[in-house]
């Protein structure tokens, strides 16, 4: 049985859980981090020295980094080729947007989300929050242009892993208490994603 270590309040854990839903993978999840079992526990650090969730454990041992986990699961299990193509160029297009989500988009929203939603001490500077919100909207505007171009999903006409990792981020943007840019292509994309039963548990206003 696949084990997933991490709390569902983590966006990165939700990526993995949504991927499991798309692949119909049975799994067991354990709460770790931020109010649950400490990721500084030596037992957890032996699995991921970065002390971050998620971690998965299967018969091959532990694996960390959420986007890597999603790629691994899609590559290994039946049905995964639809999420992560094997043809090099098509796969690169998917991974391009996955990497953009992990680097550019996540970096943009991190300060504002920590200050406004998580209320993390040290993330309460109004100027830095405002700058983070501006960066967040700038990144989302870039995504809006891409979605306006494809008319469907991030990598093209079909749903892929890129939409799993971007979908949870779009939901966070939509659910957070910020001034949002008017982005019709993103709004239409978000509405399309919410029709997927596998996304529904992670598209609730109570789960930003």
TrEMBL record:
Which parts of the sequence belong to the GST N-terminal domain? 1-81
Instruction: List, alphabetically, the InterPro entries matched.
Output: Glutathione-S-Trfase_C-like, Glutathione-S-Trfase_C_sf, Glutathione_S-Trfase, Glutathione_S-Trfase_N, Thioredoxin-like_sf
Q: Name one Pfam family in it.
A: GST_N_3
Transcription: present as a keyword of the record? Answer: no
Which keywords has UniProt assigned to this entry? Answer: Transferase
Question: Could you cite one Gene Ontology molecular function of this protein?
Answer: transferase activity
Gene3D superfamilies named in the record: 1.20.1050.10, Glutaredoxin (3.40.30.10)
UniProt superkingdom: Bacteria
Per the record's keyword annotation, is Protease included, yes or no?
no
Concerning PROSITE patterns, the annotation shows: GST_CTER (PS50405), GST_NTER (PS50404)
Q: Which residues form the GST C-terminal domain?
A: 87-208
Family, per the entry? Belongs to the GST superfamily.
Q: What is the name of the protein in this document?
A: Glutathione S-transferase
Species: Caulobacter endophyticus
Lineage, opening ranks: Bacteria, Pseudomonadati, Pseudomonadota, Alphaproteobacteria, Caulobacterales
């Amino acid at each position: 049985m696949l084990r997933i270590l991490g709390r569902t309040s983590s966006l990165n854990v939700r990526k993995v859980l949504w991927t499991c839903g798309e692949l119909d993978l049975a799994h067991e999840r354990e709460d770790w981090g931020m109010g649950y079992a400490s990721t500084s526990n030596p037992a957890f650090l032996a699995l991921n020295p970065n002390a971050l969730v998620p971690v998965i454990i299967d018969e091959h041992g532990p694996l960390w980094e959420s986007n890597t986990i999603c790629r691994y699961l899609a590559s290994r299990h039946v049905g995964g080729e639809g999420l992560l193509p094997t043809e090099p160029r098509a796969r690169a297009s998917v991974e391009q947007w996955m990497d953009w989500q992990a680097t550019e988009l996540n970096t943009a929203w991190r300060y504002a989300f920590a200050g406004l939603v998580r209320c993390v001490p040290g993330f309460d500077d109004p100027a830095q929050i405002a700058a983070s919100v501006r960066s967040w909207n700038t990144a989302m505007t870039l995504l809006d242009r891409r979605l306006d171009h494809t008319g469907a999903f991030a990598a093209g006409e079909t749903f892929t892993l890129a939409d799993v990792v971007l979908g949870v981020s779009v939901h966070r943007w939509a659910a957070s208490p910020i001034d949002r840019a008017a982005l019709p292509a993103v709004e239409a994309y978000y509405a399309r994603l919410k029709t997927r039963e596998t996304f529904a548990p992670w598209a609730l206003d109570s789960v930003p």
